[in-house]
Design goal:
Blueprint: E1 3-7, H1 15-19, H2 31-36, E2 44-52, E3 55-64, E4 82-85, E5 96-97, H3 101-122, E6 126-129, H4 134-141, H5 164-170, H6 175-187, H7 197-214
Parallel strand pairs: 4-6
Antiparallel strand pairs: 1-2, 2-3, 3-4, 3-5
Length: 217
């Protein structure tokens, strides 16, 4: 028997339990990132989870924005009052599900139904899944009526072996460009280091700001 719950904070569920559903590339859906995004003054977050006993089957955040902070709506949703479902950053949003294909389908259906009930209580008449991946959209469209709009394209490199050398082989002829860039980096006398964010935030913050300004973010 499954249960659908709406949590007011990501802190209401253990990090390991939530992250057990998060694929490695989906940093922006991880427990730690979502915790850092909780800003009640900007948007009210809710975390909808479907579980069976102690086993988590589905999880997703949703955000209720006050009018003054609401991001622009895509044309496909321009005539609706929406509840935004999924991560707000990273331009990549996919369903966090566990179990067999049938269990995932059932858990997604329960999750979306729970989200619809939550949206109705807030006065919204539609759910907006920003930047949903094609696979997740296909799964959703198999369960509910959807309206979809292509807003951006995402390229994925499948590095099955998961090593730098296997990635290098995937580059084919482009590997020469990569090797040139590595040599140029080494000849410049530069080096790579890993450090706590607290030690480099003063240097990192202006770089992030410049990048966001360049892309009008």
């Amino acid at each position: 028997m499954t249960e659908t719950r709406h949590l007011a904070s990501i802190g209401d569920i253990e990090r390991g339990t939530w992250d057990s559903l998060v694929p490695a590339p989906c940093f922006y859906q991880s427990h730690g990132w979502l915790a850092g995004q909780e800003r009640p003054d900007f948007a009210t977050a809710t975390y909808t989870v479907v579980s069976s006993g102690s086993r988590l089957l589905a999880a997703t955040p949703s955000y209720d924005f006050p009018a003054e902070n609401a991001p622009p709506l895509p044309p496909v949703a321009a005539d609706r009052e929406v509840l935004r479902v999924g991560t707000r950053t990273g331009y990549h949003n996919e369903f966090l599900l566990a179990g067999t294909e049938e269990e995932q389908r059932d858990a997604l259906a329960e999750s979306v139904e729970g989200l619809a009930d939550h949206a109705a209580r807030l006065g919204s008449d539609a759910l907006l899944f920003d930047f949903l991946t094609t696979d997740s959209l296909r799964l959703l469209a198999g369960l509910f009526p959807v309206r979809a709009q292509l807003r951006s394209a995402e390229a994925v490199v499948h590095n099955e072996e998961g090593t730098f050398e296997s990635y290098r082989r995937l580059l084919g002829r482009n590997v020469r460009k990569r090797d040139y860039e590595v040599r140029k980096f080494e000849q410049a006398g530069l080096r790579l280091e890993t450090a706590p964010l607290s030690e480099c935030v003063d240097e990192l913050a202006p770089l992030i700001g410049q990048t966001m300004d360049r892309y009008d973010a």
